[in-house]
Amino acid sequence: MHLFLNGLAATAGAGLTYIRGVVPHLSCQAGIHTTIALTSALRSELGDPANISFIEIQTPHLLRRYWQEQTELPRLIRRRGADILISAGNFSVRNSPVPQILLSGNSLYTSSDFSRDLRQRREHRLWLDTRVRGVFAKRSISWADCTVAPSRAFAEELRRWTGREVTSIYHGFDHSAFFSDESQLPDEIAQKIASDPDALRLVFVSHYNYYRNFETLLRAVPLMQRRLGKRKVKLFLTCRLTAGANPGTYRPETAAALVRSLGIADQVVELGTVPYRQLHNVYRACQIYVTPAYTETFAHPLVEAMASGLPVVASDLAVHKEICGDAGVYFSPFSPEDLAEQVCQVGACPDRAENLAACGRRRSLDFSWKRHVQEMLSVSASLLDSIKK
Questions:
Q1: For residue 40, what pLDDT is reported?
Q2: Fewer CB within 10 Å: C terminus or N terminus of the chain?
Q3: Coil, helix or strand for 85?
Q4: Which domain covers residue 247, as residue numbers?
């Protein structure tokens, strides 16, 4: 079987994690050859795996990329003799020459909270852009032969949105690869983490964006500090709240102003981007993983945090509960008070924190890129069988 994987949308976050995760396991599948269309930046880090060919395509703008996908990819798919197209960027090819599996993993198109947030921020252009993309994302589900979501909760959300059947296949996690790099963190980052060893150290792994709800987390910091008294709270962010320092067009100035107005500049530590291969060092240097996101489809950092032995305090989303289960405690997504309460309860009870951490280690073993690839190949084979019949 010859797969054609469209990875042109993999430029940041979950898209990069996906391609990095599946390539090693596609490479070792007997009887499977894969062609991957991607950007030059991503190609440079993937080496030369067996049974995989790469096509580098420059995609300077979303509209140009969409046009390339609709016009150039069908020709490339025919030329390469592929049997199955896997579209990994939320948008499918309208007239795919072969059966197509769409990987749909963007909840911004279905989230009423995100739409409301954009209007409140007066981000009218981004609101309109999201609505337009949502139209094509919805149509893409009807154009594909099969749509796959990374969690059961998001698959159900897509079913309600489109009225079409959606399959759920968990994204994976590779324990050995994630913890394999033994190099030390850059001195600047290591010194920031070690600056106050007695503090309650929280970590949130994300670029700055609106739907990760940074502001609720920031408002919770002084509330935690009041409850903990003399013990200091430190929140480590793997981003910078500076204009132009994050992917996309999200503006962090409001969050930066909130840090100043709350007087928590010495408690919010902006680590900046941490190389993925060294990220396990950041998790293990902290005590609680916290995420206030108000919409989500899978959330890879949750699995990374659980595998690293951190208890999880997460917003009360169906996706978070599905991924973490008993390894997490949950709070109302827009309540700094509830967030602070849950963090302080976990931080004040070592036995509870360890129990959550143990549950998380076990739960993280349920996610595997090898298993994900095997399930995707099973779906691909079923599509081809249905055509033969």
A1: 79
A2: C
A3: strand
A4: 175-364
Asked if residue 292 is part of any domain, the answer here is yes
CA distance 325 to 332: 16
Q: What is the pLDDT of residue 184?
A: 87
The pair of three-digit structure tokens given for residue 325, joined into one six-digit string: 């289960």
| 201 shares a domain with 81 | no
The answer to whether residues 71 and 42 belong to one domain is yes
Backbone dihedral region for residue 90 (phi beyond 0: left; psi -120 to 50: alpha; all else: beta): left
Q: Which residues in the chain come in under a pLDDT of 70?
A: 10-13, 59-63, 389
Chain segment 253-265, per-residue pLDDT in tens: 999 999 999 999 9
Residues 54 and 141 in one domain: yes
For position 44, what pLDDT does the model report? 81
* Nearest to 21, CA basis, from 1, 2, 36: 36
Is the same domain home to 189 and 159?
Answer: no
Tens of pLDDT, residue by residue over 213-270, are 999 999 999 999 999 988 999 999 999 999 888 777 899 999 999 999 999 999 999 9
Contacts for 364 with CB less than 8 Å, ≥ 6 apart: 173, 175, 303, 306, 307
- Answer yes or no: is 386 within a domain: no
Q: Which two tokens stand for residue 313?
A: 């305090």
CATH number of the domain that 66 lies in? 3.40.50.2000
The predicted model scores a pTM of 0.92
Residue 102 in domain: yes
Q: How far apart are the C-alpha atoms of 30 and 204, rounded to whole Å?
A: 39
Query: What does the buried/exposed string (b/e) look like for 19-30 if buried means 16 or more CB atoms within 10 Å of the residue's CB?
Result: bbbbbbbbbebe
Neighbours of 104 (CB within 10 A): 30
Same domain, 225 and 144: no
Q: Which residues pair with 288 in a beta bridge?
A: 202
What pLDDT does 371 receive?
Answer: 96
Is there a single domain that holds both residue 45 and residue 164? Answer: yes
109 and 17 in one domain?
yes
Number of H helices, E strands in the chain: 16, 13
